[in-house]
Amino acid sequence: MHRTEVVVTGLGAITPLGRDVQSTWNGLLAGESGIRRGVLPSHRDTGLPEVIAGTMAIDPATLLPPVQARRLDRSQQAALGAAAEAWADAGAPQVDADRLASAVGTGIGGVGTLLKEDDVLESAGARRVSPRTVPMLMPNAAAALISIEYGARAGVYTPVSACSSGAEAIALGARLIRAGEADVVIAGGTEAAITPITVAGFVQAQALSRHTAEPASASRPFAADRTGFVLSEGAAVVVLESAEHATARGARIHAVLAGAGIAADAHHITAPAPDCSGQISAMRKALAQARMTPEDISHINAHATGTPVGDVAEARAIREVFGRATVTAPKAALGHLFGAAGAIEALIAVLSVKHGVIPPTRNLTTADVDPGIGLDVVADRRDSPQQAVLSNSFGFGGQNVSLVIASARHPMSHTASAAP
Questions:
Q1: pLDDT (mean) for 395-420
Q2: Among 10, 57, 217, 283, which residue's Cβ finds the most Cβ atoms within 10 Å?
Q3: Would you say residue 418 has pLDDT above 70?
Q4: Per residue in 150-193, pLDDT tens?
Q5: Which residue out of 163, 211, 245, 299 is catalytically annotated?
């Protein structure tokens, strides 16, 4: 039976580690940190402790014409910036507009705009509220703006599934291509939600790291002394194509999106299921769609946010499927990009298989790993061929997404790069 292969031909990103893909990748491999202090200028007494977070390495507004930038929320600016890089990296493919789709996930959307315009309403009245408020705050705007920019008429999709939003958008893009509804999909995630209300909510939920004395050491996935995650912002976008379309135009193929698995816990709005059934199911579904076994996976890009409960649950699920697997946790350097996290980590998985590198987990030595994790956590960069990587993204609501990214030269991918 014919199987439509989905390949990755374009990459774009704006993260706390870098203004683009290369600087982000270089920073990750070098063990740098994108976490900073004092990221929330206080315009009123919020009662918040000093906030540390991962702000974007560049103001995304500077990547756009000034008039356009003023009309967009920060999350939308980031999405357009990352999409422009990804589209250029893919060679600006010529594609029938009715065969081009956009799928960009987000956890919250334009919350910065919502809060700003609410302040205007309260201080100056309704007549001073921007008429662009609704398009700037609506979650689907990033995907829609990308559709408008590139003339994508096959569909505009916006998964809003907390921390798994970006990964779910990429899984959806692959599904559209395999279903024959599109030849090319611009897919990814974006988030810019470092605001007093979001930080206060996470503080009250005791979800944020309390290692605030040294910001660069605050995000500590899998460490025995981890206390929570560090909130970050940014965007990551990939260009997905059918292998047939990419090969016909002589495109450079970075990697193959071999499989995607989506499953729900149906258990609790924030806590993972005690038996980890949803996470286990997502990983097994991804492997099945990729036609791979656990032994085919070189390493796992773990969701691993640094929360005491979440890291242990994911480790248990990984051990159930893979045994004592090799894992890495990029959030130690990047922080948690929330709705964009799954997209940037899928992009990192693509670079891992392309370059044969497992990025290090910052803030960790082998001796620091929680004994309850029971996995081979990569503390220092490892250079070795990577046939396939599984990337996990698990979100509030019990939403679990796993992606299998394979080398374009993997014998099971049936796809070879058209360029070195």
A1: 75
A2: 283
A3: no
A4: 999 999 999 999 999 999 999 999 999 999 999 999 999 999 99
A5: 163
Catalytic residue among 211, 245, 303, 410: 303
Residue 397 · residue 391 · CB < 8 Å: no
Residue 280 placed within a domain: yes
**Residue 260: which of 170, 156, 387, 190 has the closest Cα?**
170
336 tagged catalytic: yes
- Chain mean pLDDT for the chain: 95
Report DSSP state, residue 366.
G
For the CA atoms of 232, 79, 187, 326, the dihedral, rounded to the nearest 10 degrees, stands at -20
- Six token digits for residue 358: 């497992």
Angle made by CA atoms 152, 92, 156, in degrees to the nearest 5: 20
Question: Are the C-beta atoms of 7 and 257 separated by less than 8 Å?
Answer: yes
Q: How many CA atoms lie within 13 A of 146 on its CB side?
A: 39
Task: Please give the residue range of the domain that contains residue 277.
Answer: 7-406
Residue 155 maps to a domain? yes
Give me the catalytic one of 2, 336, 410, 414. Answer: 336
- Classify residue 131: in a domain, yes or no: yes
- Is residue 163 among the annotated active site residues? yes
97 alpha-carbon distance from chain centroid = 26
With bands split at pLDDT 50, 70 and 90, how would you rate the model's confidence at 290? very high
Q: How many domains does the chain have?
A: 1
Residue 369's CATH number:
3.40.47.10
Q: What is the pLDDT of residues 76-115, one digit of tens each?
A: 999 999 999 999 999 999 999 999 999 999 999 999 999 9
